């Protein structure tokens, strides 16, 4: 029932409610930009390595297909087994790298998110807000109550 009442009635006349877009706040910090730039550079390097390995696997298959008619059955079988082993190792390598990068991205985001939440809590206490809500949980609010940019500045100041 209190949700349908105006904030002034539900919380008293001096209620102050602010809103923060946490995703925008985290991705707007200097630390996020630095971490993400490093992450992106590492990811691009790894994509190059994967592309080279994939090219090598394709070449190995092409060579096997070309030579398949002239190779003895035993040698052909041995080369096919070698190719399948290389292909499985490549697929496992790609899967491991994807898992590693997903885990790393989540770790970076979670770390910054926890720090941002503490900054927002401190900001709310300091500026005497009754509550600060996540922007995505609200359909409408006055742009004057958006604390996202303040949260980014406070975060950057607290985490140089």
How would you describe the overall organization of this protein?
- This protein has 160 residues and is mostly helical.
- The protein has a single domain, classed as Skp domain (Protein Binding, DinI Protein, Chain A), CATH 3.30.910.20.
- The protein contains five helices and two strands, in the order αβαααβα.
- It has helices spanning 7-11, 22-27, 30-67, 73-126, 148-158; strands at 17-20, 131-134.
- A two-stranded parallel ribbon has the order 1-2.
- α4 (73-126) crosses α5.
- The longest helix is centred in the middle third of the chain and has 54 residues, at 73-126.
- The model is unreliable at 1-5 (pLDDT under 50).
Task: Describe the main β-sheet briefly.
Answer: 2 strands, parallel
The third-level CATH topology is: Protein Binding, DinI Protein, Chain A
Shape: rod-shaped
Content of β-strand: 5-15%
Q: How many whole angstroms does the radius of gyration measure? A: 27 Å
* Total E-strand runs: 2
Q: Please give the share of residues in helix.
A: over 70%
Give the class-level CATH name.
Alpha Beta
* Residue runs with pLDDT of under 50 for 5 or more positions: 1-5
Provide keyphrases for this structure.
2 strands; mainly alpha; disordered N terminus; two-stranded parallel sheet; 5% strand; Protein Binding, DinI Protein, Chain A; 160 residues; single chain; 5 helices
Element layout with pairings:
Elements: H1 7-11, E1 17-20, H2 22-27, H3 30-67, H4 73-126, E2 131-134, H5 148-158
Parallel strand pairs: 1-2
Helix pairs in contact: 3-4, 4-5
What is this structure, in a nutshell?
This protein is mainly α and 160 residues long. It has a single domain, classed as Protein Binding, DinI Protein, Chain A (2-Layer Sandwich), CATH 3.30.910.20. It is built from five helices and two strands, in the order H-E-H-H-H-E-H.
């Amino acid at each position: 029932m209190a949700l349908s009442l105006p904030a002034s009635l539900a919380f008293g006349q001096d209620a102050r409610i602010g809103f923060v877009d946490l995703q925008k706040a985290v991705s707007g910090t200097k630390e996020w930009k630095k971490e993400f730039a490093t992450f992106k550079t590492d990811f691009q390097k790894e994509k190059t390595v994967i592309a080279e390995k994939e090219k090598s696997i394709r070449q190995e298959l092409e060579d096997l297909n070309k030579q398949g008619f002239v190779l003895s059955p035993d040698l052909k079988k041995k080369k096919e087994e070698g190719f399948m082993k290389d292909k499985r190792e490549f697929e496992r390598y790609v899967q491991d790298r994807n898992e590693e990068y997903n885990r790393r991205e989540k770790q970076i985001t979670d770390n910054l998110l926890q720090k941002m939440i503490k900054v927002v809590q401190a900001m709310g206490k300091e500026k005497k807000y009754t509550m600060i809500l996540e922007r995505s949980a609200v359909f409408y609010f006055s742009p004057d109550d958006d604390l996202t940019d303040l949260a980014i500045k406070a975060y950057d100041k607290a985490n140089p």
